[in-house]
Amino acid sequence: MTETNPVEQFLTAFSTSVADDTFVRLVLSGPRAGGERPERVLARLVEIRRLPHLSITLRFPTKDVTRNLAATEAGAWLREQLGKEFHSALLCTIRRDWQLAVPEAGLVRLVTHRPSIREVPSRGHDLPKRDVLDVSAREWLVGLGVTDARGKVRPAMTDKFRQINHYLEILSHLATDCGWRGAAAGVAAAAPRELVFADMGCGKGYLTFGAWHLFNRQFRLPTRVLGVEARPELVTSGNELAGRVAAGGLLQFAAGEIGTAPLPKKVDALIALHACNTATDDAIRRGVALGAKLILVAPCCHQEVRPQMSHPPVLAPVLRHGVMAERMAEWVTDGLRALYLEAAGYETKICEFVATEHTPKNLLISAVRIEAATGADAVAGTGADAARQRIGELKKFFGIRQHALDPLLAGAEQAAAVSV
Ligand SMILES: C[S@@+](CC[C@H](N)C(=O)[O-])C[C@H]1O[C@@H](n2cnc3c(N)ncnc32)[C@H](O)[C@@H]1O
Question: How confident is the model over 33-37, as a mean pLDDT?
Fold first, then answer.
């Protein structure tokens, strides 16, 4: 550090910490009098489309305004703020903290301290704060290779970490919708009985561990989570890790097929994320058959509807493009899935699971059962009737003869129940 000017020293410390990834946070305070300046400015470093950005929160008395600035422009922005907009600045890096005072009159002072924080924070953008995946999640996140032993997200696992976080955020809201958790955060809605979740086609179990962690360790709702997976080596590794994290028998993995694997007699949530083709429909049918309160599916590839789909004349000029026909087939398949679930007595929502920049297979269909009981009487409500009618109309419009969820309309869903 060769500059003697404290402002230049501070700016150099800032750009160095961004360049060598030792930056923790920046706070500007003591706004100049007059004008409509924020009271404070808080900045953290985030990755957006794999490039470093400064995420800046302008804290006004009644609101926060956030903007993102490319790291390459951050130095010039900070230079504009120091002394001209704000009189105090605090820069925290994992090496040192820097405190700058630029009074209206008098000496500019720069003081350094030992670092108040010694670990680089997550660079994830729009992640929920790490209060769900806190230190109590470290052992399984390390075991699955998502973070290193110090809890730092491995660079290649940033997207996976983001996906787990987003999934748990969605699951938290659904826990409230399902009445498992009171609207007041963290409060069990009623005296908790043990919940049972089945995660079908769970793979390595990133989201299976996540669901177990969220309900048992965060919500303190006793929840038994079963991961079903076709690949035995993933079942073995999942069970080994569940043993290491002392899941107390509440997290288990079993080898099996989504359509036929034995499941507990009562399942509260049936989850199938990125199961191929009609395996998603098998999972939906099993969830309905078991009367699951929550069915959560993120479809993967869609192969059933596309070969059957005719091109209605008004859409033909658009659907002659293969990619458009492909997308329309996905759209119709997932739209129909939501309608079949509605016909079976569920209230459905379709949202984005992960940003499209990561994968085009990014829809999540959530369905919460609204009737008190299952069976023909329970699904005969007007919503269910309307859904049945819409399914018929949509299938006719696109010339779709059969759909893997047709048995739900025939009330044959009981056939899909294979329980232990
Ligand atoms: C794309 S991975 C998704 C894993 C996990 N659900 C997730 O979202 O992270 C799909 C997994 O489902 C498994 N799978 C696919 N079809 C299956 C079936 N019919 N029965 C059981 N597992 C299946 C695959 O072996 C694979 O591990």
Answer: 82
Strands of 299-360 (E only): list them: 346-352
pLDDT digits (tens, 9 = 90+) for 319-332: 999 999 988 998 99
Q: Which residues line ligand 1 (CB under 6 A)?
A: 201-203, 206-207, 228-231, 257-258, 273-276, 279
Contact between residue 187 and residue 261 where contact means Cβ atoms under 8 Å apart: no
Residues 97 and 144 in one domain: no
At 75-94, the pLDDT tens digits run 999 999 998 899 999 999 99
Distance in angstroms (rounded) separating the CA atoms of residues 95 and 82: 22
> Is residue 80 exposed (0-12), middle (13-18) or buried (19+ Cβ within 10 Å)?
exposed
Single-letter residue type at 376: A
CA dist list (Å): 360 to 108, 290, 323, 327: 53, 31, 12, 10
Residue 61 or 135, more confident: 135
Domain end point (choices 53, 79, 113): 113
Query: Residue 401 is part of which domain span?
Result: 135-416
Q: Do the beta carbons of residue 110 and residue 6 sit within 8 Å?
A: yes
Residue 363 C-alpha to ligand 1 middle, in angstroms? 16
Nearest to 178 by CA among 217, 135, 138, 221: 221
Tell me whether residue 282 is in a domain.
yes
Look at ligand 1, atom 2, and give the residue with the nearest C-alpha: 203
Taking the centre of ligand 1 as the mean of its atom positions, its distance from the CA of residue 245, in whole angstroms, is 23
Residue 185's pLDDT band (boundaries 50, 70, 90)?
very low
Measured between alpha carbons, how far is 296 from 405 in angstroms, rounded to an integer? 15
Residues 67 and 207 in one domain: no
Q: What are phi and psi of 365, to 5 degrees?
A: -105, 120
Report the percentage of the chain scoring pLDDT > 90: 54
Eight-class DSSP state of 303: -
Structure tokens at 21: 């990834």
**Cα–Cα distances in Å, from 126 out to 4, 46, 103, 277?**
38, 9, 35, 31
CA of 257 from ligand 1 middle (Å) equals 9
Same domain, 338 and 274: yes
Together in a domain, 329 and 384: yes
Query: Can you give the pLDDT at residue 373?
Result: 45
Smallest CA-to-CA distance from 218 within 146, 120, 144, 134 is with 134
Sorted by sequence, the CB contacts under 8 Å of residue 212 that are 6+ apart come out as 197, 223, 225, 247, 250, 251
